[in-house]
Amino acid sequence: MKTIYFQNNPELQQKIKRIQKGGVRSLHFVSDFDKTLTPAFVQGKSLPSSYALIREGKYLTPEYVSRAYAEYDKYHPYEVDHYLSLKEKSAKMVEWWEHHWQLMVECGINKKVFEDIIQKGKIQLREGSVELFSLLHEHTIPFLIFSSGLGNLIELFLKKNKFLTPNVHLLANFFTFDENGIATGFKRPLIHVFNKNEYELRDTPYYREVKQRRNVILLGDSLGDLGMIEGLQHDTIIRIGFLNEDKALLDHYLQVFDVVITEDGPVEEVNRIIKAVL
């Protein structure tokens, strides 16, 4: 079954040649985390998001699950409503994320929750991602992981598996904790699926590292991920999208991504492009 589709393969090859000409020092790399660097399915079963891992693990007070589902039932229809504008969707997502994060604080989220999830091996990388991390580290290519997920959990996973090398940066949502490791609040503004384009990367350490790097490879599984590099000036952009489920969206994805990987496929094509560039 075909899993890799190209918007315009000759144009992609031209982009690769332009990045080759610019050299490694001109390149940086930006990726989403959930269902991009991680698979969407394992053994045919949908892999839980970082949020679902907390809900299904029953780590928090008993009312958390019912209240979290109530929030989902209220806000998810806005997320998938094709008739709402991006501005309207974004406003509803801000409400949802704020309510859910406050709910997690109220229901006892703490550092031990994240440690238990990592210890039990609940997070897995998509096939080929380990080689991706290795390639980018070996050639000192700045790598930004830009996620609307749980930054504390992602950071701990990266540290435990020795992926948080000096070239790797993480931009995500983070709790604040007291001296006992109990969450007291969270850092604002929160990142959600539709507002990645609103984050000013110029204010981050990552920007200082990549401001002279005019070429980028971007990975994401949603159309909202295309906004991860807005605000940065680039000469050449290669956009690679993971369409994990609804292949009815393939034509739409091929309008905006240079490469589309379906069927929850591996990162091998991404690694092939990086090797071609190198």
What structural keywords apply?
18% strand, 11 strands, seven-stranded mixed beta sheet, Rossmann fold, 278 residues, 2 domains, 40% helix, DNA polymerase, domain 1, alpha/beta, two-stranded antiparallel ribbon, 10 helices
Word description of this protein:
The protein is α/β, with parallel strands linked by helices and 278 residues long. It folds into 2 domains: 4-40 and 122-277, 3-Layer(aba) Sandwich (Rossmann fold), CATH 3.40.50; 45-118, Pyrimidine 5'-nucleotidase (UMPH-1), N-terminal domain (DNA polymerase, domain 1, Orthogonal Bundle). Helices cover 40% and strands 18% of the residues. The protein contains 10 helices and 11 strands. It has helices spanning 9-22, 50-56, 63-79, 86-106, 111-119, 129-138, 151-160, 205-210, 250-256, 268-277; strands spanning 4-6, 27-31, 41-42, 45-46, 143-150, 168-173, 175-177, 183-186, 215-220, 236-243, 259-262. A 7-stranded mixed sheet has the order 1-11-10-9-2-5-6. A two-stranded antiparallel ribbon has the order 3-4. A two-stranded antiparallel sheet has the order 7-8. A hairpin with a 5-residue loop joins strand 7 and strand 8 (183-186). Helix 6 (129-138) runs parallel beside helix 10 (268-277). The protein starts with a strand and ends with a helix. The mean pLDDT is 93.
